[in-house]
Fold this protein.
Amino acid sequence: MSVRKLKPITPGQRFKIVNGFDAITTDAPEKSLLAPIKKSGGRNSRGKMTMRYKGGGHKRRYRVIDFKRDKQDVAAEVKSIQYDPNRSAFIALVEYTDGEKRYVIAQNGLQVGQKVHAGAGSAPEIGNALPLSEVPLGTIISCIELRPGQGAVMARSAGTFAQLMARDGKYATIKLPSGETRMILANCLATIGAVSNSDHQLIVSGKAGRSRWLGRRPRTRPVAMNPVDHPMGGGEGRASGGHPRSRNGVPAKGYRTRSRTKDSNRYIVERRKK
């Protein structure tokens, strides 16, 4: 992984830092694994804007990702590492011995030509998906299921990883990217290794137009709004806006919104750090 800092030959390139894409091996996606994306612009089925600051952006096609890794006990060869415009991580095109092709989230260090496996009995090597009950303690993992058969829901974005800390009975204890430590059923699948594109956090857009390419519209500061639009709006002159809070009046700094009666609270060993 690497990044490139551009020379300031235009105002938009003065602070721009882009991905080196040295891990990418091809720019042609697998056509059989593409699906259309219809943009909503933040509108619901009635045409009402329910999500602000969305709209525009470059046209994309969705890459169908295999998060479940349910084709088990069959070896797959990594054919290419590709860029995915719909996520921060890179993806890998794998081909099984029976000829089927699938996209999976690529882990750091995954190489073209490498064989990957999924399911019980797989070796704890980069790119292999196996139950937490068979992962050695202390191993770095990613793409973790929360319920067996659900598919990966945790540690899926660029550079993220969790660590398997302990096992007790039918539960495994893992430390998540947020710093939270929680218990998960030991028969849930996880992939060995950290997610690829760990330099994603170093990228600097360089100009506002790049956000527009990604489908993000300008965000209005709450203190610049009127009282009818936001609790922090209004006032004479450049008023500070009062206590920081959301548009619905929920305090923004340090206020806990998690339900005390949430069923999964009993699985959390240690809360994430503030």
